[in-house]
């Protein structure tokens, strides 16, 4: 089976999963956070090299204040425990998104985690926090415009590769496969530039129930796709 190098996942359905069990939404978020480690291990065991998860979007700030507060607390705690998990599993962690929108203690936890795991060479785990693709692209455009203004580059030399180097995902390969759990079939402002030639897989399974077997199903579906156009993958050669 051809294993995708990079898999990106929209972690959806935590709240609905909790509601179906008569529990509050925050319980679903807690179980969803625990499930991340399960799927990271499954991805590594399958030979996936990069795993990106959509943990908190720029639009998530519009949720009820108590839910946002609980999510922020959960994410901070997760980053603390993630350092131990990363060490145990030789996992390099990188956080992308507009970190300036997070408080200083949060930014420090991110910096400490990235520094502590930078030399690990197992699974590359990318967490999208305060991330929105349109916001990312706007920030990249501003970066390019400033460089043009400073005379560092002329407009004629701005290529796709150059623009790609200005995005949060610089240095990462584009995802081969994007998975969204819990039945919704939209991108929700996730990696719009990077997913240009990715395969999409939508499942009704909510994120807390998405395990290694479900990941295998997604990869099997990926293998059954006939990729005739765009970037050539190994299975096309």
Question: Could you explain how this protein is built, in words?
Answer:
The chain has 237 residues and is α/β, with parallel strands linked by helices. It has one domain (6-132, 174-224): Decaprenyl diphosphate synthase-like (Undecaprenyl pyrophosphate synthetase, 3-Layer(aba) Sandwich), CATH 3.40.1180.10. It is 43% helix and 14% strand. It is built from seven helices and six strands, in the order E-H-H-E-H-E-H-E-H-H-E-E-H. The chain has a six-stranded parallel beta sheet with strand order 3-4-2-1-5-6, with helices on both faces. Strand 3, helix 4 (104-117) and strand 4 (124-131) form a beta-alpha-beta unit. The relative contact order is 0.19.
List keywords for this structure.
six-stranded parallel β-sheet, Undecaprenyl pyrophosphate synthetase, disordered C terminus, 7 helices, alpha/beta, 14% strand, 237 residues, 6 strands
């Amino acid at each position: 089976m051809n294993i995708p190098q990079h898999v990106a996942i929209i972690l959806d359905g935590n709240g609905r999963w909790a509601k179906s069990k008569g529990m509050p939404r925050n319980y679903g978020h807690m179980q969803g956070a625990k499930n991340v480690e399960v799927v990271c291990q499954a991805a590594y065991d399958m030979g996936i090299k990069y795993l990106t998860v959509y943990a908190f979007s720029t639009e998530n700030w519009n949720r009820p204040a108590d839910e946002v507060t609980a999510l922020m607390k959960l994410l901070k705690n997760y980053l603390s425990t993630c350092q131990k998990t990363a060490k145990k599993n030789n996992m390099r962690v990188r956080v992308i998104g507009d970190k300036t929108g997070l408080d200083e203690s949060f930014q420090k936890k991110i910096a400490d985690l990235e520094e502590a795991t930078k030399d690990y060479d197992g699974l590359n785990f990318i967490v999208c926090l305060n991330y929105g693709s349109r916001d990312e692209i706007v920030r990249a455009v501003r970066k390019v415009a400033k460089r043009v203004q400073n005379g560092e580059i002329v407009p004629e030399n701005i290529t796709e590769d150059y623009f790609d180097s200005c995005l949060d995902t610089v240095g990462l390969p584009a995802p081969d496969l994007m998975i969204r759990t819990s039945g919704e079939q939209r991108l929700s402002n996730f990696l719009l530039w990077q997913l240009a030639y990715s395969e999409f897989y939508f499942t009704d399974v909510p994120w807390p129930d998405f395990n290694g077997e479900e990941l295998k199903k997604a990869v099997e579906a990926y293998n059954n796709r006939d990729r005739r156009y765009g970037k050539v993958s190994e299975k096309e050669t």
